[in-house]
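> forwarded from #structure-qc
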């Protein structure tokens, strides 16, 4: 469904990604793990078209995305929920959700079913639909960021640090909803520093260090890998 081959990205003289290759099959949830500064966010931004790779390629559903704008990638079915949520502060919860429908909402198109799906996943958003996005708690803003991405009707959902800054119970609630989203058939690539949380929902995982993939495999096996346990799980 989603594939990257030899992606390299630099910010001036600094190499952020070095020939990264990965794949995510249709309906799969894959975790991208690594410490802060490993290049995880850069990889998501390269996939979604927000930064231009120095070399390498990416494809979506068998179609090359070379030269494709970020907007065009959204229209194909690629949604990106960024790090730190990026909620539009001057808009209400409902308006934040409605903004994401621009890629597909035509004259007379209705969004009721899409809103219901988001509100069923995140009931608090229904209760707070008239509040401004900035007034929500951190956990509620994360729910809104995920819900907003879902409103674009994605085939593939890119999630950047969905547990960042959240209390453990709220992070667990967000990840429970991600598991439900996966059961809906949405393909997920999730970037996380919370290794245990990510491995609990992913079927496979990649580990990124200093811009390079250093490990990959089945999530349950990586959870027991000595390198993972020592570096990321505190064992």
């Amino acid at each position: 469904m989603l594939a990257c081959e030899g992606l390299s990205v630099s910010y001036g003289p600094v190499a952020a990604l070095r020939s990264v290759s990965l794949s995510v099959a249709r309906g799969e949830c894959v975790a991208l793990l690594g410490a802060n500064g490993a290049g995880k966010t850069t990889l998501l931004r390269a996939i979604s078209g927000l930064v231009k790779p120095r070399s390498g390629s990416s494809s979506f559903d068998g179609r090359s995305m070379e030269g494709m704008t970020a907007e065009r990638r959204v229209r194909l079915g690629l949604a990106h929920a960024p790090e730190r949520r990026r909620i539009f502060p001057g808009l209400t919860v409902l308006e934040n959700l409605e903004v994401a429908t621009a890629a597909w909402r035509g004259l007379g198109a209705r969004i009721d079913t899409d809103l219901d799906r988001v509100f069923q996943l995140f009931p608090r958003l229904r209760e707070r639909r008239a509040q401004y996005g900035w007034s929500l708690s951190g956990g509620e803003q994360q729910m809104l960021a995920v819900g907003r991405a879902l409103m674009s009707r994605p085939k593939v959902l890119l999630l950047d640090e969905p547990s960042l800054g959240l209390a453990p119970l709220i992070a667990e609630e967000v990840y429970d909803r991600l598991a439900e989203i996966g059961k809906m058939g949405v393909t997920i690539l999730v970037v996380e520093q919370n290794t245990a949380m990510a491995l609990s929902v992913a079927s496979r995982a990649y580990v990124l260090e200093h811009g390079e993939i250093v490990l990959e495999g089945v999530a349950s096996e990586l959870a027991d890998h000595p390198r993972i346990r020592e570096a990321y799980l505190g064992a």
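QC bot note: DSSP finds ten helices and ten strands in the chain. The mean pLDDT is 89.
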